[in-house]
Amino acid sequence: MKIIIALICVWATLFLAGCDVKDPIYNTPHPDHGTVPLTTDWSDIGTGLPTPESYTVTATRDGSATAGYTATLTGVTNRLDHLFEPGAYRFCVYNTAEHITVSGTVATVAGASGNVDGAGQFVQEMPGWLFTDVVDATIEKDTKYAVTAVMKQQVRQLTLIIEPTGGSTNRIEHIEGYLSGAASTLDFDNGTHSAPANVELQFTKITEGADAGKYAATVRLLGVAGARQKLNALICYTDDTPKATDLTSDLTMKLAAFNADKRTPLTLGGKVVETPTEAGFGATITDWIPVSGSGTAD
Question: Are 166 and 206 in a shared domain?
Fold first, then answer.
């Protein structure tokens, strides 16, 4: 009997000793990695603009410029199909917009042929709507790190409305030109607009509403860049009578805050004033004013 009791004591001692080495307790099925549920918030995009059907998310780790993870997603909430090793990550979220390419955090508008030879580089005047966000996150192992991307609108609409004056107004055949100082690139990580270029302006006569008889041109821009934004246009008349009039106007001050509120379209209106030049007469617009509720062009 004493032998049996002794054996039981030895067994109990060994059992209790074995219980001292406890199996680790984990919070997730991926103890060595983290996962990321991603939510996209589209509440701050422009009124009436549709939410893109899909968007791209990239993740780079510890300052690397190379994407370690890339996926195209739909819907507002997704669990990224990837196990992330512990580390610091940067998540870039953006949609595919027509005439715009994205590399890292730099968006570039596609070039265009333009309508004036020798004026320099032109960009597409009507790119698609681009929305982006950049989120930094530190992922730990055995965790689930929720990331919310608040999508910011990166393309803004600009409309210029010109009111011709003088006795030849009814002989205007068309008005065309370009705006200089449009940004062709944007680093949406730090909001840097750069590479100023030209954008073509094709004015169309407004046929109804309070602005009937005026001429309007609408473009979409990543923003403005460079030291100056200038309208360079030509007013052409039927049968070239009178001769075409050069129309120039400095818009730098009026567009100084253009990059700040891209979800709100900007419309500026101005009256054409004749100015003497070495060749005779030209025209300019000096008093641009914000316009709302403009009429409809043909």
Answer: yes
In a domain, 200, yes or no: yes
Domain of residue 79, residue span:
27-95+130-153
| Start-end of H helices in 97-190 | none
Taking residues 97-104, report their average pLDDT: 97
For residue 9, the 8-state DSSP code is: H
248 closest CA partner among 165, 177, 157, 169: 177
Q: How many domains in the chain?
A: 2
Please name the helix (run of DSSP H) or strand (run of DSSP E) that holds residue 131, with its range, or none: strand 131-139
CATH number at residue 211: 2.60.40
Answer whether residue 250 shows pLDDT above 80: yes
pLDDT in tens, 76-94: 999 999 999 999 999 999 9
Residue type, 57: V
Residues 6+ apart with CB under 8 A from 168: 237, 242
- Do 139 and 199 have their domain in common? no
Q: What is the pTM of this model?
A: 0.88
CA dist 115 and 75 (Å) reads 40
Task: Give me the sheet containing 131-139, strands edge to edge.
Answer: 69-73, 55-61, 87-94, 131-139, 152-153
